[in-house]
Amino acid sequence: MSKLLFGTAGIPLSTPPATNGDLQTIKGIQRVAELGLDCMELEFVKQVYLSKTNAEKVEKFASDANIALSAHAPYALNFNAREAQKIRMSQSYLFSAAEVAYICGAKSVVFHPAYYVGDTSEQAYRTVKTALAEVLEKMEDKGIDITLRPEVSGKSSQFGTIAEVANLCSELTNTMPCVDFAHWHARTGVYNSYKEFASVLDEISSILGKDALDNMHIHISGIEYTANGEKRHLPFEDSDIKYMELLQVLKDYNVGGIVICESPIMEEDALLLKHSFDGLALQG
């Protein structure tokens, strides 16, 4: 059976403050290990806050603790911006996140690709693909071997349907989707049942091949949403997300990779996911 790892979107809330010059990121990784979780996503969502020197320390600690790392690039990205300067800035932010995450030992960098800004899906797709290809070329030139993961988005104004993300990854090297099931539920108002969750995996495997299910990066939480899509993340118990049906699909499809919990009570709900999944696995 493929290995599925469970962890938090950022430093767990129960992590004690760092003292004596320690890095809070390392304290967070230590707390993840203490909780019995498997992975942590480094949240570079406002800025890439680690220096290269500190990133090397993070890599060593995470490796010794056997905690898998990924990262989330800054939110301020739009590879379909009207202004060329904003696209160049987005490329710079994503490259910086990839560079530091790679030094940290992370295998993936998640990012929000773009807004439509009045364009059709096809128009935005072409612009996003061109901009990302340039980032990937620079990464290859610099020896940065890390997977870029465009994320399934939660609002109808954002580029990032399942098909858009999967097709983009089929045409670019070193890319794979980040499938945020809460986002997709919020964006569509549906996709909240065993059959619908399974259809997402079927669509991904039909575009990228079944091997794509061996190396997934998944986001999940409860979510509040409107007709326009996501509003805010919620604990599972306060939402309508059918996480047990999702976990059953992940088990039945033998999915491998990383599951990051973005709940406001991140470690509690990450442990709920892990223990629930382990319970399903024991049932055979």
Give the class-level CATH name. Alpha Beta
User: How many separate helices?
Assistant: 9
**What's the average pLDDT?**
97
Q: Determine the structural class based on helices, strands and strand pairing.
A: alpha/beta
Q: Could you name the key traits of this structure?
A:
45% helix, eight-stranded parallel sheet, 284 residues, TIM Barrel
Question: What's this entry about, in short?
Answer:
The chain is of the alpha/beta class and 284 residues long. It is 45% helix and 18% strand. It has helices at 24-35, 52-65, 84-104, 121-141, 162-171, 181-188, 194-208, 243-252, 266-282, and strands at residues 4-9, 39-43, 68-72, 108-111, 114-115, 147-150, 158-159, 178-180, 216-220, 222-226, 229-234, 257-261.
Structural write-up:
This protein is α/β, with parallel strands linked by helices. The chain has one domain: TIM Barrel (Alpha-Beta Barrel), CATH 3.20.20. Helices cover 45% and strands 18% of the residues. It has nine helices and twelve strands. The strands form three sheets. An eight-stranded parallel β-sheet has the order 6-4-3-2-1-12-9-8. The chain is globular. It starts with a strand and ends with a helix. 48% of the residues are buried. The mean pLDDT is 97.
How do the helices and strands line up, and which of them pair or pack?
Elements: E1 4-9, H1 24-35, E2 39-43, H2 52-65, E3 68-72, H3 84-104, E4 108-111, E5 114-115, H4 121-141, E6 147-150, E7 158-159, H5 162-171, E8 178-180, H6 181-188, H7 194-208, E9 216-220, E10 222-226, E11 229-234, H8 243-252, E12 257-261, H9 266-282
Parallel strand pairs: 1-2, 1-12, 2-3, 3-4, 4-6, 8-9, 9-12
Antiparallel strand pairs: 5-7, 10-11
Helix pairs in contact: 1-2, 2-3, 3-4, 5-7, 7-8, 8-9
